[in-house]
Amino acid sequence: MEIKAEIVKKLRDLTGSGMMDVKKALQASDGDFEKAAKLLREKGAQIAASKSARVASQGLIVSYIHPGDKVGVLVELNCETDFVSRNEDFKKLAHNLAVHVAGMHPLYVAPEDVPSDVVKKEKDLYKTQLKGKSKELTEQALEGKLNGFYEAVCLTKQPFVLNQDKKVEDLISEIVGILKENIKIGRFVRFELGVRE
After folding, report:
1. What are the tens digits of pLDDT across the range 150-188?
2. How many CB atoms lie within 10 A of CB 193?
3. d(CA 31, CA 1)
4. How far is Cα 125 from Cα 142, in angstroms, rounded to an integer?
5. Is the pTM of this model over 0.85?
6. What is the SS3 assignment for the chain?
7. May I ask the CATH architecture of the domain 58-110+154-192?
8. Domain boundaries along the sequence of the chain
């Protein structure tokens, strides 16, 4: 099957994957662009999962000042090697995460960072709202409401501000698939003029 160069380029631009990976994905999907893109995303997620236990002690800290000079953000993004920290894809990810933090105002990096007393308060509130429902329905609704809470306050669970079709964790997985290293958000801080938290 012949795969046209412009299709390979378009898919590379969309996913950031290497040329050989793109060609393999297109061949595996019989030239179907959408299926190939999905295959590449899945491959990136698998690579991210396999790398997640590796130590990410290198990286960089980026700053972003939102137009109007009323909101500023610092983000620490970690990777395994200094070499990757200088990579343009890594730097772009760090910048995009800072833009996201400025616009979406997350409070925590990931669900495991939310203090247990905060989670307990949320659960108690939801249980009160669900009083009188069956136990099975309550458990399902509680899980859904808690996931919604995490999506509202956790950076990794939020829809990415520049592309609402993917979550921040998916964006990170894509870059891990490209760079083949573990990438983690170390921490972030958001400053807003006149707001004290």
Report:
1. 999 999 999 999 999 899 999 998 898 888 888 999 999
2. 9
3. 8
4. 10
5. no
6. CCCCHHHHHHHHHHHCCCHHHHHHHHHHCCCCHHHHHHHHHHHHHHHHHHHCCCCCCEEEEEEEECCCCCEEEEEEEEECCHHHHCCHHHHHHHHHHHHHHHHHCCCECCHHHCCHHHHHHHHHHHHHHCCCCCHHHHHHHHHHHHHHHHHHHEHHHCEECCEEEEEHHHHHHHHHHHHCCCCEEEEEEEEECCCCC
7. 2-Layer Sandwich (3.30)
8. 5-51, 58-110+154-192, 115-152
Report d(CA 169, CA 157) in Å as an integer. Answer: 6
Which pLDDT score, from 0 to 100, does residue 18 have? Answer: 66
Residue with tokens 């409401």: 145
Structure tokens at 74: 């610092």
Query: Which residues are within 8 A (CB) of 195 and not within 5 positions of it... i.e. 6 or more apart?
Result: none
14: pLDDT confidence band, cut at 50, 70 and 90?
A: low
CATH, range 5-51:
1.10.8.10
Whole-angstrom distance, CA of residue 183 vs CA of residue 81: 10
Nearest partner of 190 among 96, 82, 104, 115, judged by Cα: 104
pLDDT of the residue at 130: 79
Per-residue pLDDT of 19-67, as tens digits, reads: 677 777 777 777 777 777 777 677 765 655 555 556 677 999 999 999 9
